Fold this sequence. Notes:
Blueprint: H1 9-20, H2 24-37, E1 42-48, E2 54-59, H3 69-72, H4 97-103, E3 106-112, E4 119-125, E5 128-135, E6 140-146, H5 153-158, H6 162-179, E7 184-189, E8 192-198, H7 203-211, H8 213-217, E9 219-226, E10 229-236, E11 248-252, E12 255-257, H9 260-274, E13 281-286, E14 292-293, E15 304-305, H10 308-325, E16 326-328, H11 344-351, H12 358-366, H13 373-382, H14 400-406, E17 413-415, H15 418-422, E18 426-431, E19 435-440, E20 443-448, H16 449-466, E21 472-482, H17 485-493, H18 495-500, E22 504-509, E23 512-519, H19 527-540, H20 547-562, H21 571-582, E24 597-601, H22 602-608
Parallel strand pairs: 1-7, 11-13
Antiparallel strand pairs: 1-2, 2-6, 3-4, 3-6, 4-5, 7-8, 9-10, 10-13, 11-12, 14-15, 16-17, 18-19, 19-20, 20-24, 21-23, 22-23
Helix pairs in contact: 1-4, 2-6, 6-12, 9-10, 16-20, 16-21, 19-20
The structure holds adenosine-5'-diphosphate and magnesium ion.
Amino acid sequence: MNIIKLLPKETIDKIAAGEVVVNGASVLKELLENSIDALSKNIIVEIKNGGKTLIKVTDDGTGIYKDDIPNAILRNATSKIDKEIDAISTLGFRGEALASISYVSKMTLLTKTAEEEFGTQTMIESNEIISSEPVTANKGTVIEVRDLFFNIPARFKHLRKDSIETAEIIDVAQEIALSHTDISFKLICDGKEVIYTDGSGSAEKNIISLLGRNFYNRMIPIHIDDEPLFVDGYLSSVNMIEEKSSCRMVFLNGRAIRCDAVNQAVDSVYRELCGKTGADFILYIRLPYTMIDVNIHPAKLTVKLMNESLISMLIKQGIRDALKEQFVLKPNNKYSFTEPGKSIEAMVYEDANSYISPSQKMLLETEPQVYGYSSIENHTITNNSTEFDESSALKTADLSFQISSASETVFPTVKKEIFLQLSNMKFVGNAFGLYAMIECGDDLYAIDTHAAHERVLYEKYLQDFYAKSIGIQSLMIPVLIPMSVKAYFQTIDNKDLLYGLGFEIDDFGDNTIAIRSVPHYLSNHETSILFLKIMEQISVFGNSDDINKRSEKLIKAACHNAVRGSENISEQETKSLLKDLYHTQMPFTCPHGRPILGKLKMSFFMKAFERI
Ligand code: ADP
Ligand code: MG
């Protein structure tokens, strides 16, 4: 008996269509990828009712030859693979999208190549060509997809309400617009222009116009050029990150991808520098096509990198270099004495932490109940600053003042050379026993001396630890520390680890340990207090972390508690501290991520004293 049979063609097509087309957003993604592959420079998208009634993409790309049109809608037919599947440089290559989309909709395809005199307009329904005729047309392709799932009611029922489908479409368009800054994109949803980018090739411009000035303000640029890896992009300044990231995008050779290796690389560097992992980033990565396997995910979202550990290492190093090079200073307008709470910059800054994407904004505007419109109405407005500035018809009149003012606010950034520069400037004195004040041009800089000392000490100690050259100071009389049972056992358990850090310990019995030597860096401090602080850290980590990471945490804790005498430091000490900072791996923050540098502008005083 045999019961295994090949499925009928119609069923196979239906299943295949289901894999590619789930909703309007997935249709749009495929159509946009085709337009990009066709080398378009201008792409206009119009959608209606969340893509349910219409998705129309107009491009000025190569077009499709008249004779190729029947093949374009054939499954597994593509113009994009002529040699090997191992080195694919186009976004598409499976030849599945047009077949699937035309299978579940009513499609009109209008297209003309540069060589042809006339274009061809073809009507397709359920993947069948209904009519095809010559028409006058510009070079390029216009695809209209109407009545999505008209022939599969079960799938149609699964589409969500228009506003949610629209939001997802905006996300797709936004991602594509960010991925190809050299192409001009326009997205019109139900007659309103939601996205416009000018195709000037500037990632900065697109990020500001799509994600907002407030988002961009918190980012610093990254650039890696290290064969075979090339990276450009932006990531959060170490002091500007939240608990949770709001936007992470990776474009690999122009394709938006999810890549765990990249996420982990970013998180590990930020964890190392400031103990937090909520960094945002937009990274444009280029790698040879032969080092990528895009074929492992049906929607080509997840990619596998060959040589992943090498790539990760290069990315981590590039991030460290970028973060130590530049830093975003938090603006202090918030504390302005003139009309507190009225300054636009202050409002912008306060709101800068909550980024709302165009799609969320659209949802808020069209479906107030979704996110509780009334309570966050004001937020929505101010914190979006510029993203709808020129491009959006959604903007309402009473917002225009705030929007245009906010767009002027640029957060100040500093380069690490500032530390060398400041070491040659006028030392004004110490404020509050906490900050060394230095005058530089029109700015008054404040250095948090405790944080600065902590950073310098931490890096010296860490360097010695890795070089196994920690100087130790033997104690003439061992310090005895009585401990709780738990702390005592943990200490004995970590004896070797502590030895590596310069603490020689003996078991004195009776829940008491004897410390015989301490690291040279910490020799001026109250040994037992310092030691107990370190032991608090030991009790929080299990045995899972590797020994170096555990040691780093302990060194962090030790330095935090060891820095003293930062109050009222002299001019000479301040200057050498600044030079030491310049040579650290992260001069802008203490090892726990607190900022070291801040500034007040002269204009701040001038305004306060009504000179200007
Ligand atoms: P794939 O993109 O994987 O090749 P598709 O089904 O998306 O498969 O498209 C089939 C073919 O139709 C493409 O290989 C391409 O030759 C042609 N095509 C589709 N859209 C366009 C477009 N906008 N401009 C030019 N050619 C297109
Ligand atoms: Mg395609």
